[in-house]
């Protein structure tokens, strides 16, 4: 009987969309839901019986989520697929900075963002290889209830093959923890937050064309890219609420500073810069006799001066993505 504890997910960047490559890195993950669905095309012909007519094989579509803890090296692959390729510089021996600024151009004419090949081994005799995989949505969260920083990546892929599994080599660097995070709102450090969630929704759509296959032929945008943000606050006063009422757009910064890299002075770091945070909803209600908290929903808006809505900088020990 297969067991999830023996599963693994490997990945590697593709040069050409949909052309599979062997796994080069491996993601520590908690769960995944990537599946292939096969469209059932039902004939509308009248057959002289009351039963449904014959079925035909339609489009094969692949999608699902991967979720788990955030490790500072391999998470760069998911950021690359969700934001685009980073600008990388070496800070010191064995220490690298990767700046992920959301791209405005497409990776190619048939794929909006950098594609990957995923190998999902589910402890069966064959592993599931998904080629042309792109991160449509990427969400990060941490807080007093989720003390290890988490990610969820929504995947869209092109095609599936069953292959012999590879041998995983998992990242051993320390995860980012809740107590390593600092949040700055409108230039001031904020200590009223209990949970933080942020990310990107690329609004991608898998499309088929008349190319002689039953697979999707391209993954392109079907709407505007958005950057949703959710904050849980234990309010001391109405300072942030008044910014919501005035519909101010304020700068925000989220920074996770982890442990030392290779025993040196540089530390693993993930920094999120938002030039314009806009609060979309800010409910304040009494729900009992305890402390009054609010679940604030907002979004990062594109800033013409900065040329981005959200920028993520990752400092780690990986030389490139």
TrEMBL record:
Superkingdom of source: Bacteria
InterPro entries, per database record: Phage_tube_2
Protein's recorded name: Phage tail tube protein
Organism: Neobacillus sedimentimangrovi
